[in-house]
From TrEMBL:
SUPFAM superfamilies: HupF/HypC-like. This is Hydrogenase maturation protein HupF. Transmembrane segments: none annotated. Pfam families: HupF_HypC. It comes from Aquitalea magnusonii. The lineage of its organism: Bacteria, Pseudomonadati, Pseudomonadota, Betaproteobacteria, Neisseriales. It comes from the Bacteria. GO terms for molecular function: carbon dioxide binding; iron ion binding. Belongs to the HupF/HypC family.
């Protein structure tokens, strides 16, 4: 299984960037995303950036990966790892909500 890992750009050299996450450094190919700046966040798969992320989106993905790691190691706690869902109802993505609303109108 291959997971994308958010990494933060430290240095750029045309279509290559030196990125880090949690003390791990990696040279990342930027061919698919183009030029970036130090401080930008990238979603990295197997040494290549696939997407430029906002800091908020990178944090969400890192939280999800921490929850996955906790679950795989017997430390999962929904109150900690799903804290963003504890005080609200889950919501459908907009495209699925539109489909559900359309179905309700025809029923």
């Amino acid at each position: 299984m291959c997971l994308g890992i958010p990494m933060q750009v430290e240095r750029c050299h045309q279509l290559v960037a030196d990125c880090q996450h949690a003390g791990q450094w990696q040279t990342v190919d930027l061919s698919l995303v183009g030029a970036v700046q130090p401080g930008d966040w990238l979603l990295v798969f197997m040494g290549a950036a696939r997407e430029v992320l906002s800091a908020e989106r990178a944090a969400d993905i890192l939280d999800a990966l921490a929850a996955l790691d906790a679950a795989m190691n017997g430390r999962f706690d929904p109150a900690i790892h799903l804290a963003d869902l504890n005080q609200r109802e889950p919501q459908l993505p907009p495209h699925l909500q539109a489909q559900l609303d359309a179905q309700r109108k025809t029923s």
